[in-house]
Q: What sequence folds into this?
């Protein structure tokens, strides 16, 4: 295609690469690999075993505008009772120097070298080891990182790494316990990209189409699509595929051990967590909390446990007469019971 030509027909045609469909749950789980084994074989497609007490690391890749962020948001929403953080590979784009900025239309943002992968690797390893990190904030309009602000990301139960090339570097790949590839038709992705980049990233249609034909599509074929082979799960249609997302969330929950507890103790009930409960857990874990607040919030949490527990005890039917004279049929505890919460610090 000549450089100046921006025929949408051409680009749509150029965008139609190979297509795959069907959810694939390979279940490849080697026994020896660990999250720390970042220097194994040269072309490893293996996903390391998940070690208890370590965060579960998920990689989400796919072409531009395939719905990676949407899928991640849906997973995060469903895992609301866990601490989940999202790290976007986009945050690790290198800022352009003045010379590169002047010729920005010649810059290939879809090549692996456009990212500071060393920094992404370092951040991810810190998060895995339980440390908080500062993630850069990238501006797609200025092609620069913010010089004075960053996003604080804290240690979590689940770390999601999302980006077009998160499977490209083997060291990053080897940190992942689960790799997901979001597979959406190229024409759908291009249409979404045009809408998004013109509405949110300060581009005009011509520049989006030119960039797509010159860099985005070739880099997809050269780097993104070949990395699909590393995926454990392929999600056709991205965020529209609720079945695939539900299955993935179930798998993560199992890996995080929520179900195991109930398997070991069949009588155990795990109270559904809420933001309010997590908020109180956050307060009482803060080493700077006052003694008064620690006792107050611990007591509230323990009351929830006791009240939930009482709900599982035997009851018998009981009738009472209300002040208006009607009969109300309710229940009564079978035995006299009392729950006591003791807080020690
Ligand atoms: N299933 C969908 N249906 C319609 N629009 C979608 C869908 N998934 C994503 N989008 C839109 O497409 C654009 C790109 O989606 P996003 O999830 O950010 O993709 P990615 O992170 O892969 O670039 C966004 O504007 C988003 O709102
Ligand atoms: N300054 C930049 C940086 C990146 N891009 C494009 O972003 C795409 C990756 O982001 P997605 O949300 O679509 O995954 C990538 O294809 C780059 O071309 C850009 O246009 N400008």
A:
């Amino acid at each position: 295609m000549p450089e100046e030509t921006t025929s949408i027909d051409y680009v749509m045609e150029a965008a139609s690469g190979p297509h795959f469909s069907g959810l694939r749950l390979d279940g490849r789980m080697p026994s020896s690999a660990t999250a720390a084994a970042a220097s194994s074989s040269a072309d490893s497609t293996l996903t390391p075993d998940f070690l208890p007490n370590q965060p579960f690391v998920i990689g989400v890749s796919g072409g531009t505008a395939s719905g990676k962020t949407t899928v991640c948001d849906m997973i995060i929403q469903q895992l609301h009772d866990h601490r989940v953080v999202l790290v976007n590979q986009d945050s690790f784009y290198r800022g352009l120097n003045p010379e590169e900025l002047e010729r920005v239309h010649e810059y290939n943002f879809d090549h692996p070298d456009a990212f500071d992968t060393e920094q992404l690797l370092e951040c991810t390893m810190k998060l895995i080891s339980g440390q908080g990190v500062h993630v850069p904030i990238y501006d797609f309009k200025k092609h620069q990182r913010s010089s004075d602000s960053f996003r604080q990301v804290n240690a979590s139960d689940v770390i999601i790494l999302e980006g077009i090339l998160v499977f490209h570097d083997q060291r990053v790949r080897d940190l992942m316990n689960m790799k997901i590839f979001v597979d959406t038709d190229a024409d759908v992705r291009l249409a979404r990209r045009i809408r998004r980049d013109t509405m949110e990233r300060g581009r005009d249609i011509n520049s989006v189409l030119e960039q797509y034909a010159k860099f985005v599509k070739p880099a997809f074929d050269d780097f993104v699509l070949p990395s699909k082979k590393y995926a454990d799960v392929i999600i056709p249609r991205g965020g529209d595929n609720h079945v695939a997302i539900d299955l993935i969330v179930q798998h993560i929950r199992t890996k995080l051990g929520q179900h195991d507890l109930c398997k070991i103790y069949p009588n155990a009930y795990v109270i559904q967590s809420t933001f309010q409960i997590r908020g109180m857990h956050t307060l009482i874990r803060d080493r700077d909390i006052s003694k008064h607040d620690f006792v107050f919030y611990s007591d509230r949490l323990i009351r929830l446990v006791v009240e939930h527990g009482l709900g599982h005890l035997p009851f018998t039917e009981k009738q009472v007469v209300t002040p208006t004279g009607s009969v109300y049929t309710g229940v009564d505890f079978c035995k006299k019971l009392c729950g006591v919460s003791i807080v020690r610090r």
